[in-house]
Amino acid sequence: MTVDSSITSALEKLPETPEETVLPTAMETITQTQTSAESVTPLQVHLKAESGNLLLILPPQTELKEGPAVWSDLWLQLKQRLSAGEKFWEPNTLVHLIAENWLLDGRQLQEIAEALAESKLVLKLVQTNRRQTAVAAAAAGYSVEQESAIAYINQYQLTSTKPGQPFLEPLYLETTLRSGVEIRHPGTVIVLGDVNPGSSIIADGDIIVWGRLRGFVHAGARGKRECLIMALQMEPTQLRIADFVARAPENPPAQFSPEVAYVTDEGIRIAKGLGFQRPDLS
Amino acid sequence: MARIIVVTSGKGGVGKTTSTANIGMALASRGNKIVVLDADFGLRNLDLLLGLENRIVYTALDVMSGECTLEDALVKDKRQPNLALLPAAQNRTKDAVNTDQMKQLVTDLAQQYDYVLIDCPAGIEMGFKNAIIAAKEAVIVTTPEISAVRDADRVIGLLEAHSIKKIHLIVNRIRPAMVQANNMMSVQDVQEILAIPILGIVPDDERVIVSTNKGEPLVLAGSNSLAAIAYNNIARRLEGEKVPFLTLETPPEGLWERMSRFFRKK
């Protein structure tokens, strides 16, 4: 088969330590229970273009460890997301802030507006289901829509338990993911830049890194084994696809070439990117 | 308007304070008016390295609380009149100060000086946030160790989020012999991860420890050690000069070393 012939030397070393490439069933169940709970709604700051405006959707404020619980985390996530996607909008694009249940005061709204202005975006409208946030937004001169629930988020929460839910559109990030940054996205993630050690990407779809992949990545986090991880230089801390776990070989190869990680019955395998054919398509 | 530069690293003990003292001194000796601000409230060290501990009357906290004027608290260095120190309070913790106070203080300092160098505490908590709030540029100090580089990477991410985009790197305490033997990360290895422009490479040097204990920055002592030259070069590069990097290769082994090694092997 074409796949077998294209397996790189990096991976040929892996079967020597099989217990680490495919972890025992006990470990698999742990990841499975984890995955059922996560990435159902966008748990991070989310930007979405809609009828000429940009929607800035804040994740619902929860106690869940996946989402930001405090304002400073939220602000940091917003700044990182804005700087990673600057070329996807024209200067002076209007932004609708969908603040969910976040309680924002005038100063915090101003900080959001400043962060947007730095990326040449203009805050126009605030949608919230908190009265205090609505008052603060009105006082600061923004249009206000006060709703008890947001249709967009609701749609995800309602369908969350149902199978066959569509992925969100791919998340395209043009940035270096530095240590401490965690990207969670219910869809495919594309990174134009390096993924440094200490950072992580958890995606329901594929993960494509146009750069060095040295962090922790989990593709197909909701259990989709067909998902792939691709990188120009594959030296991850740990790779996960669906409920499979693998780590990079102890001795990195002398020369790197673009590689693809995919799931076979024996666990995660890595093949040279050139000439790779998806196992499910061949 | 002054250039406001924060010297930071994330990890402790990599040489932030030593770098601040030496860069400050080197910039001052080049005719710039410098103030170095110790933002490490509760664990201040910069005064020790500059040998100014016994001349502190007021601290930055006294200025913020209005107990004295900014002029009262600034400690002028007798050996180098272009350099002044604004010491941190030692009897308080980092929570005693907030970002607004810090911003005001640095803005006031920036009126009177060419450079404001801020010595940032280790960590990424309140002290870090206070130290970077008013800074326009940053100098990251790291050693060629995986832990220091990882923390530096995190700090660069935080600085970028705080809209500090002009970030330069100092790789401190490099040991060329160990790099050559592949026992230490090279500057290239560090830069491959951090991906920010290099401002300087400072070799490991025992004389740095001596100068610290004497309270006399290496640069001031007129030392011709490689570390002192490296810090002088860093100051020149900060001012926009193009200075080639020091070649830090170990001299080739002499006949004596080769012979003694030959006999030890036997």
How would the blueprint of this fold be written?
The complex is a heterodimer of chains A (282) and B (266).
Chain A: H1 2-5, H2 9-12, H3 18-21, H4 25-37, E1 46-50, E2 53-57, H5 71-84, E3 93-98, H6 106-118, E4 121-128, H7 131-139, E5 143-146, H8 151-159, E6 168-173, E7 182-185, E8 187-192, E9 200-203, E10 207-213, E11 216-219, E12 229-234, E13 238-241, E14 244-246, E15 259-264, E16 267-272
Parallel strand pairs in A: 2-3, 3-4, 4-5, 6-8, 7-9, 8-10, 9-11, 10-12, 11-13
Antiparallel strand pairs in A: 1-2, 12-15, 13-14, 15-16
Chain B: E1 3-8, H1 16-29, E2 34-38, H2 46-50, H3 60-64, H4 70-73, E3 75-76, E4 83-86, H5 99-112, E5 115-119, H6 126-132, E6 137-142, H7 146-161, E7 166-174, H8 176-180, H9 187-194, E8 198-203, H10 206-214, H11 226-238, H12 255-265
Parallel strand pairs in B: 1-5, 1-6, 2-4, 2-5, 6-7, 7-8
Antiparallel strand pairs in B: 3-4
Helix pairs in contact in B: 1-11
What is the tally of beta strands of chain B?
8
Query: Mean of residue pLDDT of chain A?
Result: 79
Count of spatially separate domains of chain A = 2
Strand order of the largest sheet of chain B: 3-4-2-5-1-6-7-8
Give your account of this protein's structure.
The complex is a heterodimer of chains A (282) and B (266). Chain A is an alpha/beta fold. Chain A has 8 helices and 16 strands. The longest helix of chain A has 14 residues, at 71-84. Chain B has a single domain (3-265), classed as Rossmann fold, CATH 3.40.50. Chain B has an 8-stranded mixed β-sheet with strand order 3-4-2-5-1-6-7-8, with helices on both faces. Chain A binds chain B through residues 76, 79-80, 83, 118, 176, 178-181, 194, 196-198, 212, 214, and chain B through 150-151, 153-154, 156-158, 160-163, 192-193, 195.
